[in-house]
Amino acid sequence: MKLDVVHDLQSVYRKVVNATSRPGMISNLSDEALSVENIPVQCAASIWVLALTLLDQEVTFKVYSAQAEKASRAINQLTYAKPVEINEADFIFVLSDAEEGSLEEAIELGKHGTLMNPHNSATIIVEAENVNDGVELLLSGPGIQTSTSVNVCLTGDWIASRNQKNREYPLGIDLMIIDKEHQLLSLPRTTQIIENRVVV
């Protein structure tokens, strides 16, 4: 079945809005992702449906990947969004084959808005091995009644980097994590993250 650029992308957009307004709620993009044909680089098809949904000729982007040049060319051709340097990008894609430390670099160098225009900031979309319900990360903040918890299979010290970047609200970056099973977790800058450390 071929991706329906109206119906399917509207469905993806609704799922992104729901996931962002209710951090910790995991949305599944499998139906839409499995409709994508001829993915130009090796990554989760849900990365492409997110790019098609969120990007257009008015925005900019940056890709971290061993296939960055090829991926950037494909995203530009599909969405007409413009590839730029990291500090200018509205959207930053960190694919699973990116070099170690790429996510932390993207968080550190991504634009975080200004007090006059806090919305002029980056959204980072990162490909993870796995996202699911669990107790590894404790989330709290707007959209969460008390607290909720999730597991995210991502290496590196990205949580500390994110906490540092988002320390002066409303400035900060927003994060979306998508796994190989097309599970989407949205972590807006307002969400607080605490690592649950289990002592054995």
From TrEMBL:
Biological process, per Gene Ontology: organic phosphonate metabolic process
InterPro entries, per the entry: PhnH-like_sp, Phosphonate_metab_PhnH
Transmembrane spans: none
Name used for this protein in its record: Alpha-D-ribose 1-methylphosphonate 5-triphosphate synthase subunit PhnH
Organism: Mesobacillus foraminis
Organism phylogeny: Bacteria, Bacillati, Bacillota, Bacilli, Bacillales
